[in-house]
Amino acid sequence: MREWQHATMEIRNATDDDAAAACVVMRRSIAELCVADHQNDAAMLARWLGNKTPENFLAWIARPSNCVLVAVEGDVILAVGCVTDTGEINLNYVSPDARFRGISRAMLKALEERARERGNARCRLTSTGTARRFYRAAGYIEDAPAPFKFGIPDYPMSRILDVDRS
Ligand SMILES: CC(C)(COP(=O)(O)OP(=O)(O)OC[C@H]1O[C@@H](n2cnc3c(N)ncnc32)[C@H](O)[C@@H]1OP(=O)(O)O)[C@@H](O)C(=O)NCCC(=O)NCCS
Q1: Quick check: CB of 149 below 6 Å from ligand 1?
Q2: Nearest Cα residue to atom 14 of ligand 1
Q3: Structure pTM?
Q4: Is the C-alpha dihedral spanning 126, 135, 87, 162 positive or negative?
């Protein structure tokens, strides 16, 4: 990783005050970066964005089995991630303004570290088509044929955490 690309970035636990800005980041990440997945289909997009609301974000933070993280530069949120106590990474969204600066890779490492601290030997996630190459490069392997979520193909993947391929 090229440290200069995010020398001023830090990853911390999300707080209630992050809810509105974090949802803007997630929604923009999906709408602007994941076009290959939703193909600007309004109904698909609406289903995917539908649960990315401040109210839901507050509930995700409050759930003890979740670890919700934000990558920030000053008071600007660059990315949002979440991992559960069982090692399921269920959010990993970078702002379009911060793409390809190593932010998602740093977020993924932070989420994996939290999963490891909670006793997991493996992380699982369901990748978008957009991020599939990114996760493969990070050592994730596809576990099963792609199912459909929000009407869009998704890619179940996992990585054994003991094997650090970075
Ligand atoms: C693809 C994506 C996840 C990469 O994250 P990022 O923060 O922009 O990029 P990073 O700098 O952390 O990682 C770069 C790596 O992404 C991969 N990558 C590079 N170009 C890519 C491209 N055009 N498309 C997909 N992946 C690419 C490579 O593995 C690259 O590593 P390299 O620089 O060593 O070649 C991000 O840009 C994105 O599109 N996110 C959309 C939201 C999403 O799909 N999230 C996943 C939910 S499961």
Answers
A1: no
A2: 100
A3: 0.92
A4: positive
Task: Please name each of the domains of the chain with its CATH number.
Answer: 3-118 (3.40.630.30)
Kindly report the protein residue whose alpha carbon is nearest to atom 48 of ligand 1. 127
121 alpha carbon – ligand 1 mean position (Å):
24
The pLDDT of residue 39: 94
Ligand 1 pocket, 131 CB below 6 A?
yes
Q: Is 130 in the pocket of ligand 1 (CB under 6 A)?
A: yes
Give nearest CA residue, ligand 1 atom 28: 134
- The bridge status of strand 88-94 relative to strand 141-142 is unpaired
Token code pair at residue 32 = 């602007």
Structure tokens at 155: 């890619």
- Residues with Cβ < 8 Å from 140, sequence gap 6 or more? 123, 125, 127, 157, 158, 159
Minimum-distance ligand 1 atom for the alpha carbon of 37: 44
State how far Cα 46 lies from the chain centre: 19
At 67, list the tokens: 């670890």
- Answer left, alpha or beta for residue 48, where phi above 0 means left and psi between -120 and 50 means alpha: alpha
Q: For residue range 62-77, what is the model confidence (pLDDT) as tens digits?
A: 999 999 999 999 999 9
Would the pLDDT of 139 be above 50? yes
